Amino acid sequence: RMRLFNLWEMGQDQTKQQIEKGLHLYQSNQTEKALRVWMRVLEKSADPAGRFRVLSCLITAHAEMGRYKDMLKFAVVQIDTARELEDPDFLTESYLNLARSNEKLCEFQKTISYCKTCLNMQGTTVSLQLNGQVSLSMGNAFLGLSIFQKALECFEKALRYAHNNDDKMLECRVCCSLGNFYTQIKDYEKALFFPCKAAELVNDYGKGWSLKYRAMSQYHMAVAYRKLGRLADAMDCCEEQALLVTRGNFFQESMKIALQHGDRPLQALCLLCFADIHRSRRDVQTAFPRYDSSMSIMTEIGNRLGLIQVLLGVTKCWMIQKELDKALESIEKAQELAEGLGNKLGLLKLHCLCERIYRTKEQQQELRDHVVKFHECVEEMELYCGMCGESIGEKNNQLQALPCSHFFHL
C-alpha cells in the first residue's frame, strides 16, 4: 500500500513538473511546444487534480490564440474532471471556463446561464474569489445582447470584487470592458477614461502580467480617440513604443504584441481599428484591405460580434464611394449576424444606415420601414434619458449612472 502511495505521489510530481515545463515554454513564446507538453500530460496522467490544472492551461492558451471551439471542448472535459474530484471550487472554476468559452463564441445566453450556475455554487473561499470574473463575463454577455443596464450592474459588481480583493488584473480587464460599454452608448469621455485607467494599472502593477493587458488597454484607447475625432492620437496609440527593427516600420503596439504571441483575436481587433481610422480619414482604398484581413480572422476564430463591426465599417466605405447597392449587400450580411446573436445595437445601427441609403435613393416606403424599426430598437434597449426623455447613444454625450445602474444625460 505504501509503495502504491509513493508511486501515486511520484506521478503527481511528474505531472506538476510537466505542467511547469509547459508554462515555461508558453511564457517563452514557444506556444506549440507548450501545447504538445500539456496534451501529453492530459493523455497520460491518472491524477484528476493534475488533469484539471493542465486543462486550465489548455483553455487559457486556446483562448488567447482565438481557438474558441477547442477552448470550449477542453472546458467541457474539465467539467467532467471537476465532477470526478467532487470539489465545489473545481466545479465553479470549470463552469466559469465554460461561460467564458461561450462568451468568446458569442453564445451570450449560454454564457449568462453558466455564470448564474457559478454564482449559485457559493460557500468556498475560491468560489468567492472567482465572483469578480464571473460578473465580468456576464457583463460582457449582456453587452453583446445590448442589455446595457444589466451589463453595467455586472461591471460595477466586478469592479467592487476587484477593489475588495485588491485584484489589479481583474480591475484592468473590467476597465477595458467599461471602455467598450461607454463607446457603445457614446460617452466618449468615459470611453477614453477607463482604458487610460487600465493602462495606468499595467504600468504600475503589470511587470509580471501578460503583454495582452497592455495591448488591450492601448486598443481601447485608440478606439476612443478615433470616436472623439482625434485621429492623430488614435494613430499614436497605434504606433507608441512599437518600433520594429525590420525596415524601421512603425506598427501599432497592440498589433506588435499580437503578432509576436500569435494572438489572432487581438490581430483582428487591431486591423479593424486601423481600417476605421483610415475610413475616418476618408482613405477608403487603404481601409478596405484592412477590413478584409480583419474579416478573415474574425471568421476563422468565430467572432460574429466582431464581424458585425467589420461589416458596418465596410458599409460606410461603400457609402462614401456612393456604391449604395454594395452597401446594402454588406448590411444584409450584418443584419443576419446581428439577428442571430440578438445584438440589438448592431440592428439599430444597420437600420440607421438603411434609412440614410433609402433617403438618398428616394425610396420612401423602405425609408419609413427602417425609421420604424430604428425606434423599435431604441425602445427595446430602453435607450432614453430618464431626465430629459431624449435618446441616449445618438451622439457623443456625457452620461451619469445612478446606483441602480440606470443612466441619464449629465
UniProtKB/TrEMBL annotation:
<keyword id="KW-0206">Cytoskeleton</keyword>
<dbReference type="GO" id="GO:0008270">
    <property type="term" value="F:zinc ion binding"/>
</dbReference>
<keyword id="KW-0472">Membrane</keyword>
<feature type="domain" description="Rapsyn myristoylation/linker region N-terminal">
    <location>
        <begin position="10"/>
        <end position="89"/>
    </location>
</feature>
<dbReference type="GO" id="GO:0043495">
    <property type="term" value="F:protein-membrane adaptor activity"/>
</dbReference>
<dbReference type="GO" id="GO:0005856">
    <property type="term" value="C:cytoskeleton"/>
</dbReference>
<keyword id="KW-0628">Postsynaptic cell membrane</keyword>
<keyword id="KW-0677">Repeat</keyword>
<dbReference type="InterPro" id="IPR052480">
    <property type="entry name" value="RAPsyn"/>
</dbReference>
<keyword id="KW-0675">Receptor</keyword>
<feature type="repeat" description="TPR">
    <location>
        <begin position="132"/>
        <end position="165"/>
    </location>
</feature>
<comment type="similarity">
    <text>Belongs to the RAPsyn family.</text>
</comment>
<keyword id="KW-1003">Cell membrane</keyword>
<dbReference type="InterPro" id="IPR019734">
    <property type="entry name" value="TPR_rpt"/>
</dbReference>
<keyword id="KW-0449">Lipoprotein</keyword>
<comment type="function">
    <text>Postsynaptic protein required for clustering of nicotinic acetylcholine receptors (nAChRs) at the neuromuscular junction. It may link the receptor to the underlying postsynaptic cytoskeleton, possibly by direct association with actin or spectrin.</text>
</comment>
<keyword id="KW-0519">Myristate</keyword>
<keyword id="KW-0963">Cytoplasm</keyword>
<dbReference type="InterPro" id="IPR019568">
    <property type="entry name" value="Rapsyn_myristoylation/link_N"/>
</dbReference>
<dbReference type="Pfam" id="PF10579">
    <property type="entry name" value="Rapsyn_N"/>
</dbReference>
<dbReference type="GO" id="GO:1900075">
    <property type="term" value="P:positive regulation of neuromuscular synaptic transmission"/>
</dbReference>
<protein>
    <recommendedName>
        <fullName>43 kDa receptor-associated protein of the synapse</fullName>
    </recommendedName>
</protein>
<keyword id="KW-0862">Zinc</keyword>
<dbReference type="InterPro" id="IPR018293">
    <property type="entry name" value="Postsynaptic_CS"/>
</dbReference>
<keyword id="KW-0770">Synapse</keyword>
<keyword id="KW-0802">TPR repeat</keyword>
<keyword id="KW-0479">Metal-binding</keyword>
<dbReference type="GO" id="GO:0031594">
    <property type="term" value="C:neuromuscular junction"/>
</dbReference>
<dbReference type="GO" id="GO:0045211">
    <property type="term" value="C:postsynaptic membrane"/>
</dbReference>
<dbReference type="GO" id="GO:0033130">
    <property type="term" value="F:acetylcholine receptor binding"/>
</dbReference>
<dbReference type="InterPro" id="IPR011990">
    <property type="entry name" value="TPR-like_helical_dom_sf"/>
</dbReference>
<keyword id="KW-0597">Phosphoprotein</keyword>
<dbReference type="InterPro" id="IPR001237">
    <property type="entry name" value="Postsynaptic"/>
</dbReference>
<dbReference type="GO" id="GO:0007271">
    <property type="term" value="P:synaptic transmission, cholinergic"/>
</dbReference>
<keyword id="KW-0863">Zinc-finger</keyword>
